[in-house]
Specification:
360 residues; alpha/beta; two-stranded antiparallel sheet; 13% strand; extended
Length: 360
């Protein structure tokens, strides 16, 4: 807080300070109003009626905006406070919180002079150590393979040259690392190909989105045997998990999206120290009908853990021939209903009629 002694004696300087302070307060009022709106959106997304709740991704975006705005206000307050300029706020030490596998680059920051004001030499008595997270931005580079040709001066037996290394895309531009980067960015980080093309263009690499799509398609063809081998390995297990989740899919020509489903087939024996490694394979299907699960699980015999979706009952139908599957239902889903009964005395409807219709 400013005191009377901190105010300038010059009327013009005092007037300028008041104008600056008024403008700063106005900006703060606008930010406070924005924060209040974000808080209201946050509460609506978290606690509103189910039909009014926002998509989880939109919920995260609102939360990010809220946290960013709060940090900006705190930074402005720290910059405006005379106390913060005199004595910076002490922050918690983060040493040891970053992963140990990250390389450490030590920077020793020495004083400007190691000569004391009395003329003597300063000697170390300790040090303060902290850690900061740094990043090397992704850089594209060009690999230039050179294959020298050799010939003998004493005979004419021909020319010797190393064979050209195999490429994932014959005569293609990208290395395997570049294709892997595009795949991970698209499917793990949900970065569309057109945005990846924009990122590359900032470094002067002009690639059309269709070119990246061609890389992805060819990589998918090469990876298909890996997927088939993973599915086959999972089906040899005695116990598997299965679940399906919605995925919005573009509907060409309509300008809208339709609902598709990713079916996950998973194995995880780590809780009981099983010998099989964990694994999961995802299969896309345009629908949620029980026949999709039947197609994916063809050849599997064992225990299948699922939720209460009626479509899985098709797997244990009396007239089903072939592999024998036993269903083990999820205790978490059952416990959820028991908790609801304990709290409210009843269980809300779960559109079971629609679920039965989809199970065919």
């Amino acid at each position: 807080m400013l005191t009377v002694t901190d105010l300038p004696d010059d009327p013009a300087a005092l007037k300028a300070m008041l104008i600056t302070s008024e403008a700063r307060n106005l900006r703060k009022d606008e930010r406070i109003e924005r924060l209040e709106k974000l808080v209201a959106a946050f509460r609506q997304a978290a606690f509103g009626r189910k039909s009014e709740r926002r998509d989880p991704d939109q919920f995260d975006l609102a939360l990010e905006d809220l946290e960013t705005a709060i940090a900006a206000v705190h930074a402005e307050e720290e910059a405006d406070s005379p106390d913060s300029r005199r004595a910076p706020k002490r922050r918690s030490v983060n040493r040891g919180s970053l992963p140990k596998h990250l390389p450490r680059i030590e920077e020793v920051i020495e004083p400007e002079s190691l000569i004391c004001s009395c003329g003597g030499c300063l000697h170390p008595i300790g040090e303060d150590v902290s850690e900061r997270l740094d990043v090397i931005p992704a850089r594209f580079r060009v690999i230039v393979p050179r294959r020298p040709k050799y010939a003998c001066r004493s005979c004419t037996d021909g020319v010797v040259q190393a064979s050209a290394p195999a490429r994932l895309i014959q005569s293609g531009l990208p290395t395997e690392a570049t294709i892997a980067h595009v795949l991970v960015s698209k499917y793990a980080d949900h970065l569309p190909l057109y945005r990846q093309a924009q990122i590359m263009s900032r470094q002067g690499i002009d690639l059309d989105r269709s070119t990246l799509a061609d890389w992805v398609g060819r990589a998918a063809f090469e990876l298909r045997p890996v997927f088939d081998a993973l599915i086959a390995d999972l089906k040899r297990s005695a116990k598997l998990f299965m679940d399906e989740t919605r995925a919005p899919v573009l509907d060409p020509g309509s300008g809208k999206t339709r609902t598709g489903y990713f079916w996950a087939l998973a194995r995880d024996d780590r809780p009981w120290n099983g010998g099989a490694p964990p694994g999961v394979a995802f299969t896309y299907a345009p629908g949620r009908g029980g026949q999709r699960a039947e197609q994916i699980l063809q050849g599997f015999s064992g225990v299948l853990q699922v939720d209460g979706y009626a479509g899985y009952n098709r797997l244990i139908a009396p007239d089903r021939v072939g592999s024998q599957i036993r269903l083990a239902y999820c205790w978490a889903h059952a416990r959820r209903k028991l908790v609801e009964v304990t709290r409210t005395g009843s269980v809300r409807g779960d559109n079971q009629g629609e679920t039965q219709r989809q199970s065919g």
